[in-house]
Amino acid sequence: MTEPTHIARGKRVVVAAAVEQHGHLLSARRTRPASLAGGWELPGGKVEPGEDPARALVRELREELAIDTVVVGQVAGPVDGDWPLSDDSVLRVMRVRIERGAPQPGVAHDQVRWLGPREVGEVAWLGPDLAPAAAAILRLDTWVDFPSGALEGHGVVTFVAPLPDGRAAVVLDRTPFHPIDHGWPDQPGDTGFLGGARVHDTLTGVLDDASRLVAGEAVPLRRGDPRGAWVVVHVVDPEHAPDPGARVALSVDAERRAAFSRGHSGCHLASLALNEATARFWAKPSRRRDSRGFPMLDQMTISLSRIRPDGAFDTYRCGTSLRKAGFDAPAFLVERDVVAEEVNSLLAGWVARRSPSRIDSGGDPTLAARRQWWCDLPGGPAQIPCGGTHVSDLGQLGAVRVAYGITEQGFESTTSVG
Ligand SMILES: [Zn+2]
Hints:
With 418 residues, the protein is an alpha+beta fold. The chain has helices at residues 53-65, 127-138, 254-277, 297-301, 320-324, 329-334, 336-352; strands at 7-8, 11-21, 24-30, 40-41, 44-46, 68-74, 83-86, 89-100, 109-115, 143-144, 152-162, 168-172, 174-175, 192-194, 197-199, 201-207, 213-215, 229-236, 247-252, 302-308, 311-317, 357-360, 372-375, 382-385, 400-406, 410-417. It folds into 3 domains: 7-137, Nucleoside Triphosphate Pyrophosphohydrolase (Alpha-Beta Complex), CATH 3.90.79; 143-252, Elongation Factor Tu (Ef-tu), domain 3, CATH 2.40.30.130; 255-417, Threonyl-trna Synthetase, Chain A, domain 2 (Threonyl-tRNA Synthetase, Chain A, domain 2).
């Protein structure tokens, strides 16, 4: 006979939540019973007979903290996946995301607090909750500082593993290193130093609930998928890999980063100028428009983008769907050199304004954030979803020029900066 779901190996299951949001873990201070009052916990509660543990947790979080949540995984403990609680019960800690609401203390708690990666020790945890809380915080998404342009920092090593190519992957709680995106690998990963170790490359990685790391092209999920922890993977020689728990200094190769930032900003500006200069080739009003109101030829046709030091190379596919949408590709291709001169003239005017350029992470400091590049341009602000790095003002670009060439699929664009 199998045990009911609220019993595990003869012990009653108590459920608790590792509520993750924007790189923080939720803690709550109990008001009752008197023996536990004032202690901090991962919120949760008892599983009723016949109740599914995950459903019980969602119910408890709604009752206790007024949040609607979804269970996305588990923080695995040492007792067949659970955590020791008492002689007759175990704690099952599930990873959850908030779908609606912000946690409000009710009757069971009088305070809630979000803890960042280095703040697990800042609340007085109830004994059984300390170890799972520490484990939950270790698997938060990496905090990234590259969106602000940072090149230096310190990180605490959370995870080290061998990579298939024999080198070592080092994951830290926080880093200024920019990783290449596995889904849209336009800007290469940073290089630099981690402690005394040379960082040869920086990849996007994902950790599953069993702490298996997958990095780079092999990552099977879209960035931000809540089933995994999204981590920055620093690639070092194995003999130089630091130990988990070590605090290390991080330093990105500044000149290389700056050259890619100039190339990336130039690439975005060129794409917006292309949209503006090709608006006249649309036979009917396009529904898909960029942040400045022009038909988004770039985003509708781009098939590959490679950011280079002080430049970029992009390829575009002009298929039947583009023709049906109303774009006259043959006419554009005939006039491509004229369009390039129009684009270059727009770019010269924009660069001359030395407008500030920045990344908006929407208040999420982690690698999983949905980031946007912003720049104030004549005729409307530039706003493009972007995972890369950029100059802080367009004056750093000097000049941006494009040239277009015809390909079998459509056309290609070469952008050069400086
Ligand atoms: Zn970008």
